[in-house]
From TrEMBL:
This is Uncharacterized protein. It comes from Candidatus Epulonipiscium fishelsonii. The lineage of its organism: Bacteria, Bacillati, Bacillota, Clostridia, Lachnospirales.
Amino acid sequence: MKKKIELFVTGLVLAGVGAVANTGTLTAYQSQPHTITIIDKDMKTQYETREVYLDEFLDANDIELSDHDLIYPSLDTELKDGMRITIQRWNPEVEIILNGKSETIQTQEYMVADLLRTERIVLKEDDEINVALNEIIKDGMEIEINTYETGKKIVETPVPFATEIHNTSSLPDGVSRVVSEGKEGTKRQVVEVVYFGGEVKEEILVSTEIIEQPEPKIINKGIHVEHVYVPEPVHVTKHVYVPEPVYEPKHVYVPSPTHQVNPTVNWNGKPYEYTKKLTMEATAYTHQPGDRWYNQTASGMPTFVGMVAVDRDQIPLGTKLYVEDYGIAIAGDVGGAIDWNDIDLYFNSPSEVYDFGRQHKDVYILKDQSIDVQALRGA
């Protein structure tokens, strides 16, 4: 609304024209403040403003909109007194069911693939998801993901003991006496478990070891012994000529001691000694600006190509490694889905992560643990 203001002017001289108006009326307009209501996230706020258009009002009051937020009426609408303006923020609620475990979150991501990257969920070749990765997220969307995971479990079972019966004449005939009660042993089995969707798909026996031998139960049993007379043997002595032995020296070859050399792997034309070799199931991950864990690791180091995540019960944090087809690396991060024989390799881009998928790789624990991996990898 504009307020009309009339100014009465006497003797107004128009410069450059020379005409003089003895009396006259000068008319001007001044904007009146509008009272408008903003409804943003179910919160109502009233404003008084002299701005003319809606986009000017938002700028003047530092009210920001994201690319996916909706506002009604449109930004080029002229403001009117008593106007109600509604903002619908892009913050949909999504239920993620990962291997049977449900979690409801709110997100500002626009597509399913972006949401999975933010939540650090990496899909492998045989994993299943009920929506397309390029599908636009909707409020109330349910995303169900079933993945293949592997883990190990240790099963300990008793080993039965044997019973030994020893016949003895020190006891009356038919009388038995327990000398030792016996004790069960313990057998330990390492089993690799394959899960799909959080449920056991397959169990594979990896190794069996008797960690405690059973002790037998020993019973002495009395028996009757008959005494039989055996005459003493008659000894006849014969003299036999035995020549003196002739001693000939023998030359015995004693090999010179050798220095044990650790086996090596080669990377960038340089050999690296290693002390242990593991075959592990390798996956890949990455960070992008805006991710919850961007450039953060469990060791406090930044992420770079050469940073790998491990199960710290299998490989302690800080261990220097060589990973087949990946290079020198450091065990500097962990992950909720990483268990025992898993290793997660850091890459710079999501495309490299998806291309890598899941592979079996040989991992070598290096003898030289003083290597500066971050400097070596140029990070």
